[in-house]
Amino acid sequence: MGLFSRDKPKIKIQTTKKDGFSGWLKCTHCNELIHTNELEQNQNCCPKCQYHYRLSTDERIKSLSDPNTFEILFNHLQPIDTLNFVDTEPYPNRIASAQEKSGSNEAAVVGTCLLNKHKIALGVLDFNFMGGSMGSVVGERLTRLIEHALQEHLPLVIISTSGGARMQESILSLMQMAKTSAALAKLHEAGIPYISVLTNPTTGGVTASFASLGDIIIAEPNALICFAGPRVIEQTIGQQLPPGAQKSEFLLQHGMIDCIVDRHELKQKLAEFLEFFKGNLVEDNDSGMINGSKNGNASKRSSAVSKELKTPS
User: Fold this and answer.
1) Rg (Cα) of the chain, in Å, rounded?
2) Cα(174)–Cα(287) distance, rounded to whole angstroms?
């Protein structure tokens, strides 16, 4: 009888299953299981196939700049809704949502830093902020960075990742293509080097302007680089594109970019290019002009680098 008179065991019964993130992910490229810790330790690259996932602006700046040397510039410039634009929601609501999601106040972070002890002007686009789209503030920040590089005789590096011009700003966003390109033309005339780094994806008005105007154009592996996406083109022309079209490897074969550099080697490769171009930044004491503006050394050096990169070993 004691068996039936005992107190019932106090066992907690879980009525609902609690779902939680265990830290494991499936690589979208090779379908292998990887852990988020492995990604973080490998600069957000798959440890199995080295597929390059996106980096935040903070992660990108940290990976390229020497510790504690990045100084942000022009962060006071803020986006506004000049056109009172409304699609499925008002533009100010989209800006607020993007700021909360990305932790940035715009899709471009610009400043100066040391890269392997070379002082540079650095601009980084943030895909987490409205797809890295180029609005008037993005264009203004980049233009001011270019002008700062011109004034201070600093080599310029811009890391691009973008869906193109920002539709919510209409013609104002398209004007940034001409503005940034004009500023880069002045930088080129002065013989100051500009290195453009294209990451996945770099599309639209960004590709059609400053991203394609570098003295050296570098791309990360397997990055989508184009003006219009492959689906749009296929629907327009009614034909399928060749395999791998608009990927960085395809563009390297067809001469649009100069080299493909793995993320782990990017900082060192940029340092090598900066060392190569260093002769252009020597001040001419007599004229007050840098050498490249007098004899076109920048163009000659960039052509030499391009030929070296594209010549089979």
Assistant:
1) 24
2) 37
How far is Cα 251 from Cα 200, in angstroms, rounded to an integer?
Answer: 13
- List of E strands, 11-131: 24-26, 33-35, 71-73, 108-115, 118-125
pTM for the whole structure: 0.84
Three-state helix/strand/coil letters over 212-241: HCCCEEEECCCCEECCCCHHHHHHHHCCCC
The pLDDT assigned to 11 comes to: 59
CA 112, CA 104: separation in Å to the nearest integer?
17
* Band of pLDDT at residue 120, cut at 50, 70 and 90: very high
Tokens of 273: 């290019």
What six digits make up the tokens of 242? 């060749």
Run of H or E including 96: helix 91-102
3-state secondary structure at position 120: strand
Which carries the bigger pLDDT value, residue 300 or residue 67? Answer: 67
CA quadruple 233, 51, 100, 24: dihedral, nearest 10? 130
Burial letters 185-220, b for 16+ CB under 10 A, else e: eebbebbbbbbbbbbbbbbbbbbbbbbbbbbbbbbb
d(C-alpha 27, C-alpha 46), whole Å? 7
Q: Rounded to an integer, what distance in angstroms lies between the CA atom of residue 114 and that of residue 174?
A: 32
- The most distant pair of C-alpha atoms in the chain lies apart, rounded to whole Å, by 111
Residue 251 to residue 231: CA distance in whole angstroms: 18
Buried b (16+ CB within 10 A) or exposed e, 132-163: bbbbbbbbbbbbbbbebbbeebbbbbbbbbbb
Distance CA(77)–CA(139), nearest Å, equals: 11
Mean pLDDT of 128-143: 97
pLDDT at 184 over 50: yes
* Beta-strand relationship, 71-73 and 108-115: antiparallel
